[in-house]
Write a structure and sequence with these properties.
Keywords: ATP-binding, Nucleotide-binding, Transport. Its main location: membrane. It is found in: Cell inner membrane. It is a peripheral membrane protein. Helices cover 36% and strands 26% of the residues. It is of the alpha/beta class. Strand 7, helix 5 and strand 8 form a beta-alpha-beta unit. It has a 6-stranded mixed β-sheet, sandwiched between helices. It has a 4-stranded antiparallel β-sheet with strand order 2-1-4-5, covered by helices on one side. The structure holds adenosine-5'-diphosphate and magnesium ion.
């Protein structure tokens, strides 16, 4: 299960209100993309969901249970960082195992999950290499593998492909979409790239200065943008 609800969630840094109170529901199994220009609060909103930032007000629920005061490790959510967040001195296997070690998952269960993740991500032949011996795409898959083995209720991605060159980005986009179809787990994906949003999302959340301008499927936003900002950002004909 992975239904996430935000009720009047807001965030201030000092006197600056970065996220005014907002409501949002992310359904179980949905691929939701937060899109908007740089500085509009996408990362902050994702970090509030992950528990990496405390809310200034409001309530976050995961599968109906209050999660607002839970530390990140207790939220059953896995944040996928950019591939440079891998440990360079550890093998792929150890990088993937790391969160399970922290969570004290038994060794044989660790092995089972690593094998499953490696199969799902085509990394079986690379488990004994170090990140420096992998391509950019493979490193990104290791970062995803590290999230998969936690068997989270939802995956949270913050611009995971922004380090990769254009050609690789297209491939990884397809891989993440395919992974979503296969796992059927909720994914929340942050990007400033309209094409990524329009091609990957079940539901797009368009943000401007911390406000939700519109929520809808790619087709809904394309056909019925609520205002000029959304139309301009999504590239609608209006
Ligand atoms: P995005 O991910 O959409 O580019 P962010 O969520 O990173 O935007 O930032 C939204 C706004 O919040 C920006 O104006 C940024 O400067 C501000 N901000 C983010 N983190 C902090 C922080 N820790 N302290 C103060 N201001 C912050
Ligand atoms: Mg950001």
């Amino acid at each position: 299960m992975g239904r996430i609800t935000l009720e009047k969630v807001e965030k201030r840094f000092g006197d600056v209100e970065v996220i005014p109170p907002l409501d949002l529901t992310i359904e179980d199994g949905e691929f939701v993309v937060f899109v908007g220009p740089s500085g509009c609060g996408k990362s902050t909103l994702l970090r509030l969901i992950a528990g990496l930032e405390d809310v200034s007000g409001g309530e976050i629920r995961i599968d109906g249970e209050p999660a607002t005061d839970l530390p990140p490790a207790k939220r059953r959510l896995a944040m996928v960082f950019q591939s440079y967040a891998l440990y360079p001195h550890m093998s792929v296997r150890k990088n993937i195992a790391f969160p399970m070690k922290m969570a004290k998952v038994p060794e044989d269960e660790q092995k089972r999950r690593i094998d499953n993740a490696a199969r799902a991500l085509n990394l079986t032949d690379y488990l004994d290499r170090r990140p420096g011996q992998l391509s950019g795409g493979q490193r990104q898959r290791v970062a995803i593998g590290r999230a998969i083995v936690r068997e989270p209720a939802a995956f949270l991605f913050d611009e995971p492909l922004s380090n990769l060159d254009a050609a690789l980005r297209v491939g990884m986009r397809l891989e993440i979409s395919e992974l979503h179809s296969r796992l059927e787990t909720t994914m929340v994906y942050v990007t400033h790239d309209q094409v990524e949003a329009m091609t990957m999302a079940d539901k797009i959340v368009v943000l401007r200065a911390g406000n939700i301008e519109q929520v809808g499927s790619p087709l809904e936003l394309y056909r019925q943008p609520r205002n000029l900002f959304v139309a301009g950002f999504i590239g609608s004909p209006k």
